[in-house]
Amino acid sequence: MPKFAANLSMMFNEAPFLDRFAAAAEAGFRAVEFLFPYDYAPEEIETRLRENGLELVLFNMPPGNFAAGERGIACHHGREEEFRAGVEKALIYATRLGTRRIHAMTGIKPPDADPAACRETLVANLKYAAGKLAPHGITLLTEAINTRDMPGFFVSTQADSHAVVMAVGAPNHKMMMDCYHMQVMEGDLTTKLKRYAADCGHVQIAGPPGRNEPDTGEVRYEHIFRLLDEIGYDGWIGCEYRPAGTTVEGLGWFWRLSNAGLKEEV
């Protein structure tokens, strides 16, 4: 049976961020994830998690200048010290909040940058991060993100994500397999989930092509959820989608599958 974590960067946006924890718990979620915690002190988030009985399963390392369009700096040569400072900052939050997965966005390739140099920088940075996270029992994640939504993103296919994991060679470095990005970029979800099952550290879902609820769009998620059980994936499934209406109005799929028992389907 799948375990679902609400992504609070996309879901429950009807409320301010710190109020989304209570909204997720009220809807039946027992875990959450989000992009970044850094606008809030760790103790503020810790309080919301504790008050609502929630586990924080994932967040991202600092991504560079997100407002200016940066989506990670792990592949950016010359910014290694900034990347390392981001590792330390993420560790402060993860250890305080009990989070066991951190995603390092690989980034958009800088204009005119040499791809080989970007790959060398990426691998070196991820080796450093994995080494820093390992003593705390934290898994580092690399995600392939589709280049329709993020043009120029440096790692965009599952094969490339897996190749990076193999190059880093750290036991606590895994792939984050987002089914939405996978479908947009390459499809063939069943084969890829089976092929990379041993190196999959986290799964995310949304309904392509619009990135709405998983029971909309072109992916038959009831098959994907059965497949994840069959291949032995027992981790959380992050619901990183944009609700088509209000979040609660679109949660019928979740209540059918989660055994939450708290709501009737809308």
If you had to describe this structure to a student in words, what would you say it looks like?
- With about 270 residues, the protein is an alpha/beta fold.
- Helix 2 packs parallel to helix 3.
- It is globular, with a radius of gyration of 18 Å.
- It contains 9 helices and 8 strands.
- The relative contact order is 0.15.
- The protein has one domain: Divalent-metal-dependent TIM barrel enzymes (TIM Barrel, Alpha-Beta Barrel), CATH 3.20.20.
- Helix 5 links the parallel strand 5 and strand 6.
- The C terminus is likely disordered.
- SS class: alpha/beta
Distance between the termini: 22 Å
The CATH architecture comes to Alpha-Beta Barrel
**Whole-number tally of structural domains:** 1
Reading off the top of the CATH hierarchy, the class is best stated as: Alpha Beta
The averaged pLDDT comes out at 95
